[in-house]
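ingest -> validate -> predict -> emit
validate: passed (alphabet ok, no gaps, 290 aa)
predict: started
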Amino acid sequence: MSRQLRGSLVALALASFVAATGPAPAGYMQPGYDLQVIKSEQGVEHGAVSYLTNPTWGISGLDTQVNTSFTLSACQDIRFARLYLDIWGGTRSYTSTVSATLNGTPLNAVNIKGYSADDNPTFDAAKTCVYGTGSGMWQVAYSGVGSLLHKDGTPNVLSFTVSDPGGSGFDGRTACASLVAVYTDTSINQRVDYYLAEADGTVRKTPGTNNSPAQRSLTFTGIDTANLIAATYVAGYTHGTAGEKDQFYFNGHTLGDAANDIALGTSSDYGPSNHSFDVTSYLATSSTVR
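emit:
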């Protein structure tokens, strides 16, 4: 059986959490957290990974129900899924509540309580987490959505509303909604390894140095490269100001154009930016993204 590694990264804004059975508080921490793998599997038979993003800025607003949908390939099983909702608050102190349904089933209730209600984050795909940039952008990462998704190729409908019951001034527009799903079907002739990583919105600087470059890194270990077909690194940003740049390195090799400049903001409304790179020739048993 052939083997493929698909490295899926969602680079986000900070994380606080509670158990999936209760409301999720939110906050942000300085000086930021490095990328951390929150979910991974190796050797998933007949497996594939889907990463879908829908811009929602122009149709969203406070107390406005937003409807969007994600269509997955027809499959026999959904191994894992995580749903992301990126919300603009205005400032780090404004608060809100978020209600959502997926295919008619309510998702975990979420309370965005602002930076003063921060907790140290635990990166755990089994929990619904709320991440904050520290400058008013929030991301809800919903757990437990895999069992709610359709496996027959029909659209999966997400409906959500952002409210400000306390009247704090929360903006309520959303940049995008994203769905990461790992699925299997006997028609897929490969095995897949995947690593899903998350991070907050504050990038670390090298400790003990002045004016050091802001950077973060993540190392994947135990990769089986013996029967490799292809390896893909996917980076998803919640938003980015048009004209801003970033730089990616995979095992020391630059990714992107000749100057290694990756555009973060692709539109004037600070919409989402997703980037995909073929790293097949760079892959090693232990591989580092920086």
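The radius of gyration is 19 Å.
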